[in-house]
Amino acid sequence: MIEIKDLHKSYKMGSNSLHVLKGLNFSIAEGELVAIMGSSGSGKSTLLNILGMLDEADSGSYTLDGVPIKNLNETKAAKYRNKFLGFIFQSFNLINYKSAMENVALPLYYQKVPRKEREEKALKYLEQVGLKEWATHLPNELSGGQKQRVAIARAMAAEPKVLLADEPTGALDSKTSYEVMDLIQNINDEGNTILVVTHEEDIAHMCKRIVHLKDGVIVEDKKVEQVRAAQYVK
Amino acid sequence: MRFIFDRNTWQEIFGSISKNKMRTVITVVGVLWGIFIYIALSGAAKGMDNGFESMFETIARNSMFVWAQSTSMPNEGYKTGRQMQLKIDDAVMIENRIPEVQYIAPRNVRGFFGAPPANIGRKNKTGSYSLFGDYPAFTKIAPKKIYDGGRFINDEDIEQARKVAVIGERTQKELFDADENPIGGYFKIDNVYFQVIGVHKYEASGGFGGDGDIFIPFTTFKKLYNTGDNVGWFSIAAYDDADVVKVEENIKNLLKNIHHVHPDDDRAFGSFNLGEQFNKIVGFADGITFLSLIVGIATILAGVIGIGNILLISVKERTKELGVRRALGATPAEVRNQIILESVFLTVIAGIMGIILGALALAGINSMTQDIDFPYTNPTVPIPYVIGALVIMVVLGTLIGLIPAQRAVSIKPIDALREE
What parts of the sequence cross the membrane (chain B) (predicted)? Predict the structure, then answer.
C-alpha cells in the first residue's frame, strides 16, 4: 500500500541545514495498523507530512497504492489527498462553525458528492463512531473524545486508502484515549490501513507493528502483539 | 466558471457567511453605507437638477429681455443722458439682421415701471391689475397655459386691434361668479369694454407676473394708451443652439446703431439674459451631480476596500480552517474561488441593500420637500448609474477578494495546520 525508499528530508534554518530524515526505507501492506514512534525531533511528524503529501521529500521515492507520488503541484496533491488519504489530527481540526455532520461531509463536498448523498454518508459514519445523535451539534458543544471521533468519521467519510493519525490521543486523557484507540482498532479490523504517529508506549502497543524512529533513521521495526483497547473501555 | 452555477458552491459559501454573523454584518455595513451614500447623493443631485428644470419650464431657456435706458456718452451731436425709447420697427430690424433670434415679442405694460395699473370694472366690481400689450409670439417665449375653451391673442386680434383680453385666474374669481363661464364675457378696462377670450393658469416662474395679469393685443394697447410705436421692452428667444451671450451682444449693438448711440455706451440699453443665468444654474447642478458621483464612488471604493481588509483578517483567522480544507482535498483553486465568491457575494448583497435603503431615503426626502418652496423634484437615480455601481462593486469585490484569496492559497496546508 505504502512504499518508501531512501527518503531524505532536510530543513534549511538560516545558514544551517537540518537533516531530519536520513534515508528511510519501509513498506506498509494493506490492512496494517502501524505505530510510528519516536521522541520529539526524531522526524516522525515530518515523515507523516510527507506521507500525507503536505510536504515533499528532497529525494527518494514514495509510492502510494501503486501510484508514484512525486512532482506534485498543489492541485494534484489536493486531489490525491482527497482520494487516498484521511487525516486525524492531534488537535482535531474540526471547522468550528460547522456541525458535526457538516464536518464529516466536508471531504465529500470536495469530491463533488451531491448534498443529500453527502449527508447520508456523513450520518452513516457518525453512527459508526457512535455520535449520530450529536450530528447537529457544533464542535464546541462536544467533549475532546467526541471531537476526535467526529474527526475520525470525517477521515473515513472519503473512504481513503490510508488513514494517517498524528498523535490522535495527544490531547485526550487516558480513558478517552483508549476509547479512541478502540475505535481505530475496530476500523482496522474492517481492513483499513492505518498509520498512527505517537510517542506513548501504551498507544503504540495497541497497534500491530511499531516503527521506531530516532534522529531521522529507523532504529527498530517490529511486529507486536496487539493490546486490545476494548478491555480498558467500560 | 462552472463553480459559479453550482448549488453546492453557494451552499458552502452561504454556510461560511451565515455562520460568521458578526464578521458578515461588519463587512456588509461598509459597502452598504458606501452605496447608500452614492444613491442618496446622486438621487438628491438629480432631484435638484429636476427642481431647477421645473423652475424654468414656464419660459424659454435661452430667452432674454431688452429695454431702453438713457445714454451715458455723447454721440453724433447728441448729449449725454438722452432718454432712449425702443420702437416697434426695432423688432423688425432685429428679426431681419440677427438670424439667431427665433422669436421676438415687443411688449408694453401698465402697472409696472412707473405706469399706473389699469382700472378694471364689471357690473359693480372694480379692481386694478397689471395690463400687458402683447403679440402672439410672446407665448412661444414664455408659454402660458390657457384653460379649456379659451385661447391666447392671435394675429387677427393684432391686425384688427380687437378689444379682447386674456385674464388671470384671480381676475376671473374677482370679476365673475363661480358658476359663470368667463369666456365671451365683457368687462371694462379703463372704461373701454373688452371681451374675455381666455383664462391663463398662473405658474410661478421666478420672473414678474402674477395670477391677476391681463393680456390684450399690442395694437389695442397702443390705441388705448396712445403709446404710438413705443415699445416697453422686447422679450427675445434665441434658437436652442445659439450662444445667448453673443446674441444679446449683437442685439444691443444693433440697437445702438439704429438709435445713434456710441458703440461703447453700455448704459443706453438694459438687458437681462435668462439663458445665461439658466446656463449658470445648469452648470452648478451638473457640478453637484459630478461631485456626488465622485463622492459616491469614493465611498463605495472605501467600503469595498473595507471588505477586502476584513476578509484579509478573516483569512488569517481562518488559516487553520483553510489548512484543514486543503488537507481534506480542497484544491488551491477551490479555496481561492471560495474566498473571492464570499467577497463578491457580500459586496452584492450589501450593494442591493444599500440601493434599497438609498431609494427609501430619497422617497423620504421627496415627500418632505413636496410642499415647501425648494427646487427639488422627483429625485431619481438613472438605472445605468445603479447598474454601473453594481458592476463596479462586483469588479472591485473580485479584485479586492483576490488579495485575501491569494494569501489563503499561498499558505501551505502544513504551515496552516502546524499553527496552534
Answer: 21-41, 290-315, 344-365, 385-403
